[in-house]
Amino acid sequence: MRRTFSTRLVALLALGTLWPAASALAGPIQIYGAWHCSSDACVWGAPRTIAEFDAMNHWLIDRGDGRPSVNLVVLSFVHPLKLLNQTTDATTLNGVPRGMTPQIVDYFKSRNVRVMLSIGGITYTKAWNQALAQDATTFGLRAAQLATQLGVGIEIDYEENSSPNIAGLQAFITAYRSVIPYDATGNNPSARLTIDLAAGDRWLIDIGRKATADWLRTNAPVLDYANAMVPARQPSTDKAIANWKEHLDGKAQYAPPYPPLAPAKFTAGLYVAEGSRVRAECNNFAASLQNTTGSFVLNAAPNGAGTTAGLLGYMFWAAERPSSRGVTTQPPNSCEGGIGAGATNYGIPIPIPALRQQ
Fold first, then answer.
1. What digits encode the pLDDT tens for the residues 184-230?
2. Model confidence pLDDT, tens digit, residues 293-306
3. Contact 261/247 with Cβ under 8 angstroms?
4. How far is CA 338 from CA 7, 85, 162, 278, in A?
5. Distance in angstroms (rounded) separating the CA atoms of residues 114 and 48
6. Residues 358, 309: contact at Cβ < 8 Å?
7. Residues 323/40, Cβ–Cβ less than 8 Å
8. HSE (side-chain half, CA atoms, 13 Å) at 240
9. What is the enclosing helix (H) or strand (E) of 14?
C-alpha cells in the first residue's frame, strides 16, 4: 500500500526538515537505473567482448543473489550530429558509437533490464544545436530508426541553457513519434522516449518549461518521463530534496511561469561515481542518499499536476567510467552494497512494469 503525506509531514518539508531514512517496505518506485559510460568516459568508441564487459560490470546484473541491481541502463552518449549524418569514423559506425552493439544491449535485456540510449550530454551541446539547425525532422527519424534497430528507448539529453532550439526539438520529437507512437503499456521498448531536465527549475529553464507544459502532461503525454539530473556535485539530503521539490512546485514567478510537474513524470538523479573516493551510493546503502531521501521519493505529493504520490524512482550517474579521472564503478568498486542493496530495500520490479501515468 502506498504511503501518503500527512499534513504534518507537508509542514515539516516546507520548513526544510529532513525526511527520515526509508523503511524496508516496498514503495511505488518503478525506475531504478544507471547511466552507463563504458570504459572510455562516455564515448563508447570501441566494441568490447562480453567477457571483459561482464568482468567490469557484473554488479549491474547481479546484486549478489542473481538479481540485477537496476532495472534500466542508459548507454551514454550518442553524438547528435554524427547520428543525423550517419557518420562512420574511428569511434562511430553509421552514426552509432562502435561500443553500443547488439551484444551489449542483449547483455542487459537478457536479464530483463531495459536499455535506452542517451543522445547528447553536456559535451555534445553544440552538436545538438547543429543537428537541430541542420535537419531536426530527419534527426528525429534517425533516432527512431536506431531505437527500432536495437530494440531500445531514447533519452534526449540536450543541455543548451542559454538559447535552446525549442522549435527544432519539437520537430525532433514530432518526427520520432510519427514513427513510434507513445505507448502507455511500456510493451514496446522503442516507444520509451524521455528527456533530461536540470536538478531543479533554475537551469535549462526554457527546455524544462516547454517539456513540463507540453510534453510531460498526464492528460496528453508525448514523452514518457523526465530525469532530474545531478547538480554540479553530490548534494546533501536536504538540498537534493529541495531541487526535486522545485519540479513538483514549478515557478509561478517566472515569466512565463514554469508549471509544476507530476511526481509520476520524473526520476531523481544521484551520483554513484564522482570525485576521488568511492561514495556510499555505490557501496553503503545505509549511509547513502538513496536511503536518506527515500521517504521523499516514495511519498512526494503532487502540487498542481498529477494525482498519485511518489516520484518514478532514481537514476544514478554513472556506471563504469564517467570521467577520464576519478573513481569508477569497476572492481573493486562495484556497487552491490549501495545500488544493489537499495534495489532489495525498495523491492525494485524487474522487469520495469507499465509506468504510472497520473
1. 999 999 999 999 999 999 999 999 999 999 999 999 999 999 999 99
2. 999 999 999 999 99
3. yes
4. 32, 40, 36, 11
5. 20
6. no
7. no
8. 25
9. helix 7-14
